[in-house]
């Protein structure tokens, strides 16, 4: 594909910009416009509820990873902390209803 050294400016109305932003979701404008112009498949928009769930799971997974790392280094974490993180992780997996 080569280096992307050239910039193309396009002027749009406020309505057009709103439509573009709604369609592109969280993707950068330039990447979305390039994909449309080159007729490349654009990834589907991830619903906000899924993004929030992913963020919650990522935080819990990172905390569990830190506990596991501490354990493997000989620093045994408190059982209460492990239980709390496992409960949070389970609740996140079950959508907060667990």
UniProtKB/TrEMBL annotation:
Superkingdom of origin organism:
Bacteria
What protein does this entry describe?
A: Auxiliary mobilization protein C
């Amino acid at each position: 594909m080569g280096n992307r050294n050239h910039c193309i400016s396009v002027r749009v109305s406020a309505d057009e910009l709103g439509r573009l932003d709604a369609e592109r979701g969280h993707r950068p404008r330039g990447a979305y416009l390039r994909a449309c112009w080159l007729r490349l498949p654009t990834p589907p928009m991830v619903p906000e509820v899924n993004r929030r769930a992913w963020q919650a799971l990522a935080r819990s997974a990172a905390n569990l990873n830190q506990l596991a790392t501490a354990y493997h280094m000989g620093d045994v974490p408190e059982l209460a902390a492990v239980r709390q993180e496992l409960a949070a992780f389970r609740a996140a997996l079950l959508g907060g209803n667990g």
